[in-house]
Each structure stands twice: as structure tokens, then as C-alpha cells.
Design goal:
Number of strands: 11
Helix content: 25-40%
Largest sheet: 9 strands, mixed
Distance between the termini: 18 Å
CATH class: Alpha Beta
Strand order of the largest sheet: 1-9-8-7-6-4-5-3-2
CATH topology: Rossmann fold
Number of domains: 1
Radius of gyration: 18 Å
């Protein structure tokens, strides 16, 4: 059956979903990697930055980050090191404007932007066969939508998506309540600052008062939607959510999700009837949002996602 119960068990000292979510950001040590960076010029005149690591002859895995993520996000370098140690070559894709330099065009990236991913996939394939793609959070939504759009044409062996906001409207509303508002405020502050910096260097096509924007919905309605060709936030959420694409996926795909993810409600999670036979949804009772940390004591914390993703990609 497409939905299975995860074997993940949280560390006893991180049983709370919010602790699972923030621990890695606050305390995880980032491993050093030998990286080769590359700027890929896109067809529309913009660019994305890539970071390559691992053995030159290894099977290739492309990795996608979450909202406002970077190579330095808590989940990124650890996974790259794990995959490199397993013999994989990795390519980490920064979405537009996420590598530390503002992108050139007024538009940026968003949860349903699969065109840039397709260009990167084609670029990678000019060098080597692409074995798999891994996406976290927003990057997981992009990945699942792309897989559903491409179907057999995706032409990769496997995919993994973690903590995916399957229904963007649900995620936006969920982040307006309870302690989840802390994540909304943190990410909104980053998005607003990026908007200010970028449009201090070029004229903005929008008339927006950032001080009046208090929620993701308001940001997406006033900025994300018009910058990227959507009528409004509702149109953006409808057309960019990965949920309607899950039945169309033909690539063997593992989706890892925690029921207590504070970015979504339990009812947001798809069930068997929503999934294609190619998709395995692994549900954990605990794990937070891109958390999934176990281990007996804080000094011996284990980042289970790295192990599980490596195991899935390496299995026959």
C-alpha cells in the first residue's frame, strides 16, 4: 500500500514537534564539504547557482531546499555528506535569489515553479545520467509537482520529498495559528528583507506596503502571485500545490511526513486514494517539520532523515 507507518522514533528529549523543528537549525554542526560552485544561466536571462560535491563517477542526486533555504540550511550539508559517503555525486540547486545574491529579474521562485527545475535537470543530464532528486518542504512540493507534470518523461530512477506542504492554502492557514505563527513571522521577515534589498537595486513593478503584510496569505496575494503571473493568492495556491499531481507520478518516490508537522494540519496529509502506485508515503507520528531527530542524548543526536534517504536511494 502507498501509505506506510514510519519506523522513526524521536529522541525522548525532542518529543515536542517544535523542538524537532528548530533543534537542527540551532544546534546541528555543519560538516565541511569539498564543493565546486557553478552559475547556470537560464533561458529568460536570469540565473541559479549550483553546488557540486562527491565522487566524479558517482550516480547523480539533485537536492532542492525549502523556503528561503540555502546550502547552509540545517538539513543540507549533512545529507550531502551522507550521500557522498555512499558514493553519490550531488548537485545542490539554489532557487533564484537564494544563494546570497539577488537574481536579475523582478520575479523570483515559488512553490510551484518547475520550469527552473527542468532547466537544471537538463543541464545536469548534459554531463551525466540523473539518478534521483530529493526535495525538502517547498522544494519537495516543487519536486512532486514536476514529477506529476513530467510523468514518464521525468526519466529518473527515484525521488524523495520531505515535509511537503501538499496543499498550500492549508499550510498558509495553519501558519497563522498557535506557535506556528513564530515560523510564519521568521520566514516573512526574511522574505520582506529580501524584497527590500532586491528592489533597492531595481524598480519594483508592484505598489506594496510591506508593513501591512502580516501573514503568508497577504504576502502571496500582494507579491508572490502578481510577480509570477497568478491572479491572486488563491489562484497561486490552487495551481502550485503538489496534491493534485500525486496521482500522476510515475517515478518511484518516497514521501516522508510527520503527523505533528507544525506547518500543516494532520488532515492535510494525502491518503491512499490520492497517491499513484509509484508513491510511498511514509508517515511518522512525530518528527516536526524537517526534523526527524533521534539519539539517546543531545550530544549523540542522530539525523534520521540522512540515513533514511540514503537507504531509500541505495535500495534495489
Amino acid at each position: 500500500m502507498p501509505v506506510i507507518q514510519s519506523q522513526f522514533r524521536p529522541a525522548w528529549w525532542l518529543s515536542n514537534p517544535h523542538l524537532q523543528t528548530i533543534w537542527g537549525t540551532l544546534f546541528r554542526r555543519q560538516p565541511q564539504l569539498e564543493l565546486r560552485t557553478e552559475r547556470l544561466e537560464l533561458a529568460d536571462g536570469d540565473f541559479v547557482d549550483l553546488a557540486w560535491s562527491g565522487p566524479a563517477s558517482g550516480a547523480m542526486v539533485l537536492v532542492l531546499h525549502g523556503l528561503e533555504g540555502t546550502l547552509n540550511s540545517h538539513y543540507a550539508r549533512g545529507l550531502l555528506r551522507t550521500l557522498n559517503n555512499l558514493g553519490y555525486r550531488t548537485c545542490f540547486m539554489h532557487f533564484r535569489g537564494c544563494s546570497g545574491e539577488a537574481n536579475r529579474l523582478p520575479r523570483s521562485y515559488h512553490s510551484g515553479e518547475t520550469g527552473d527545475l527542468q532547466e537544471v535537470v537538463e543541464h545536469v543530464r548534459h554531463r551525466t545520467a540523473l539518478h534521483a532528486v530529493v526535495g525538502f518542504s517547498l522544494g519537495g512540493n516543487v519536486l512532486l509537482k514536476w514529477l506529476g507534470e513530467q510523468q514518464e518523461s521525468a526519466a529518473i530512477s527515484k525521488a524523495v520529498a520531505v515535509s511537503v506542504p501538499f496543499r498550500l492554502d492549508d499550510a498558509a492557514r495553519r501558519l497563522e495559528g498557535g506557535l506556528s505563527r513564530v515560523y510564519q513571522q521568521h520566514l516573512l521577515n526574511k522574505l520582506k528583507q529580501k524584497y527590500r534589498v532586491k528592489f533597492s537595486q531595481m524598480p519594483s513593478p508592484l505598489r506594496v506596503n510591506l508593513d501591512n503584510i502580516k501573514t503568508f496569505y497577504q504576502f502571496d496575494d500582494a507579491i508572490t502571485a502578481p510577480l509570477h503571473g497568478f491572479h491572486n493568492a488563491d489562484d497561486y495556491y490552487t495551481r502550485s500545490s503538489s496534491y493534485p499531481f500525486l496521482k500522476r507520478i510515475r517515478t518511484p518516490s518516497l514521501v516522508i511526513h510527520a503527523i505533528d508537522d507544525p506547518f500543516m494540519w494532520p488532515g492535510t496529509v494525502p491518503d491512499n486514494s490520492d497517491l499513484s502506485p509509484a508513491v510511498t508515503l511514509e508517515l511518522a507520528s512525530h518528527g516536526g517539520h524537517v526534523g526527524f531527530i533521534t539519539g539517546p542524548v543531545p550530544g549523540l543526536a542522530r539525523y534520521w532523515l540522512d540515513e533514511r534517504i540514503g537507504q531509500w536511494l541505495s535500495a534495489d
